[in-house]
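To the team - cobalt (II) ion complex, inputs and output below.
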Amino acid sequence: MDDWSPESWKGADVRQQPTYGDPAAVESVAARLGALPPLVTSWEVETLKGQLASAARGERFVLQGGDCAESFAECTSDSITAKLKILLQMSLVLTHSLKKRVIRVGRFAGQYAKPRSSDTETRNGESLPSYRGDLVNSLEFTAEAREPDPINLLRGYQRSALTLNFIRGLIDGGFADLHHPEYWNLDFVDHSQNAAEYQRRVESIADSLRFMETLAGVEVGQIDRVDFYTSHEALHLVYEQAQTRTVPRRVGWYNLATHLPWIGLRTAFPGSAHIEYARGIRNPLGVKVGAGMKPADIAHLVDVLNPDGEEGRLALIHRCGAEKVAEELPPILRAVCATGKPVLWICDPMHGNTKSTGEGMKTRAFSAILSELEQAFDIHAANGTILGGVHFELTGEDVTECVGGARGLDERGLRRAYRSQVDPRLNYEQALEMALLVGRKGAVTS
Ligand code: PEP
Ligand code: CO
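Output:
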C-alpha cells in the first residue's frame, strides 16, 4: 500500500495519547510487546470478516458488548464468566427472535484505553493527568496513580491474554454449547422479571436442536458451535502498532491484538492518526459515527478505509442519541450509500444517550437506549439499508448504573451498586430485557 507503514500514523494528527515522562521506556516496552506472541490469529480475523460481510447483507446479526472500560482488577474468573453468560443469553434470544445466526463480539480482552475530553482533571484546585484507562494510568486521584506508566502496556497485554485464554478454554470445554444453556444461568436470574420468557425460549431452542438432531441422526455441529470474537477501541497507537504484524502466506499487515479494532468518535476526524493507522491493516474495522460528524466526511472515511469495496471490511457504528437519530442518521446513510461501498451498519444506542443526574452521576435511561435502537431499525428500513448489529455497554453483574427497565430502577437507586469507572452499563436484567425487546422489534422490521 502506497505510503502506509505501521508507524505512518506518526506523521498525521495524533490525539488522545498519554504524555509519558520517559519516552525511551515506552520504546523499550513496545519492543518487548512486539516480540511476544499474538493474541489472535489472522485465520480468526479473516473468518470474522467473512461473517461480518454476511451481517451486512442481512444474513447474520452482530451483538457487540461489554464494559466501557475493562479494569485490571476485574480480570477475574467471575467477572469474565458473567460477561460471557449475558452475551450468550442475549445472543440466544436474538437468534430466536431474528431467526439469524448471531456474531458475538465482546468489548473485552483489551478494552483498557479510554479517550478523554480533557488532558487534565482538576479537583479542589489540584490538576492531574486525566485517567486514560488501566493501559495508561490508575483511577485514584493522586499524582503517582495518574502518572502514565509504560509498564501498563505489558500488563494490559498480559491480562488480555489471560482473559482470552480463559474464554477459549470455557468455549472449547463446552460452556457455550447450546445443548447446555443451564451453564449460563446467573445466580439472580430466577428473580428477574424476564426469567420466565427467557426460560421458554431456552426450552424451545433445546427442543428444535433435539428435533434437528433426530432428523439428521447426528449432532448439529455447525449450529451449536459458538464463537466469540474480541474487539476494543484501537486508541493507544504505540500499543496497537507493537502488535501489528505480517504473517506467513498472507499479504499485508494484521493487528493481532484483537479481531475487530474500532476507531472512537474523537479520533475519527479527517487527517486523524488513528484513521491513518487503521487504513493499512487487514482486520475488519469499526468506526463510530454521529454526533455532528459531517456526512461527507463519513463518506470520505469509507473511501479511505475501504478503497477496494471489500465486503466485511468496515462497520460504521452510529451513536446519534434517541433525540437526534431521526434527523442525523438519514443523511449519513445517503452519503455512505453514494460511495457504492459495502458497509455493515451497527447501532450503539449508549454513547449518544449519556446524561448526568442532579447529583452529578453519569447515567443512561433504558427507554432512551431502546428508543434509539427502535428508531434505527425503522430508519434503515425506510432508507433501503440494513441494521446488521447492536453495540452495548453492559455487564453480567447486578450493577445500578442505567435507570429504567422492568425493575424500574430510578436515580435514587443508582447509588446501591454504581461501579463503572467510566460510562454507565446495562446490568444483567436490563441487558436481557433489551435483547428481548430488540429481538421483537428486529423481527418485525427485517
Ligand atoms: C466507547 O465506546 O466507550 C466510546 C468512548 O465511544 P465513542 O467513541 O462513540 O464516544
Ligand atoms: Co463508553
